[in-house]
Amino acid sequence: MDKLTLIGFKNNRRIRGNGCAEAAASLFILTLVAFLLFCPQKASAYILSTEQILDLMAKNFAPFKTVSLTRTVYLAEGEGREIPLEEVIYLKSPGFYGRQSETGERPTDIHYMALLMPLSVSSLTGHLTRLGINTNERAFVLQDRVICYRIGGKTNDAPVLLVEKQRCIPILLRTKPPSSATSLRVISFKDYRQIDEDWYPFETIISEDGKIIVRCVVKEIKVNPAIPPGLSFTPIDAVEGAGPSPFQETIKVLREKYR
Questions:
Q1: Are residues 208 and 97 in contact, defined by beta-carbon separation less than 8 angstroms?
Q2: Which pLDDT score is estimated for 45?
Q3: Per residue in 172-192, pLDDT tens?
Q4: Which of 93, 118, 133, 226 could be cross-linked to 159 through a Cys-Cys bond (beta carbons 3.0 to 4.6 Å apart)?
Q5: For strand 146-152 and strand 96-101, is the pairing parallel, antiparallel, or unpaired?
């Protein structure tokens, strides 16, 4: 065998070897693509535990002693009319609130404010459980074209908490009021703005059975403000009592006042 033939023989073996390597690589890629296409979605998408989600959510709200929210509460009266009510909400760690209202009445329950405080994971988990939310169930869902973590059941009438995946902020809470076995109360957190390193919703909309009954618009937020003398604080997760809707009762009071 001459030298030229020997060189050609070696080059041929090298080409064959490279071809086998390329074929093996192609086969591996095709197998991987087929696995990703045909395996169940649950196997390819990792969902954080409830504890991890709530921990990330709580870290959006820096530790503080007290925060005051000056806001206007718009109570729906029907036919597109609203009654405005000025109030100041004081949030006090760990898990208390106080309210100053121009009528002295309490127009809304305040339990959802617990989601906007730097509470511990165990406190938040217990709070959601008391609201009837199954914290053992979670999934990814789309809400207004935004990917969210859903904590709670998957049926349309199940109590749930939706937490935006990107910023880990609460955007929707759905519960069943204790005063009604069939009604659904939905609280939507909107218009988030960054205050220092924290995120706060400047608009909160409360609906029952698909109808807006209350809009709350924040005008000012103060950290560690002076506490008014005589202001009393109540546990934020106190269960709302049965009886007439507090929204309707407050509307009656305001009608009498401004008649």
A1: no
A2: 61
A3: 999 987 666 668 899 999 999
A4: 133
A5: unpaired
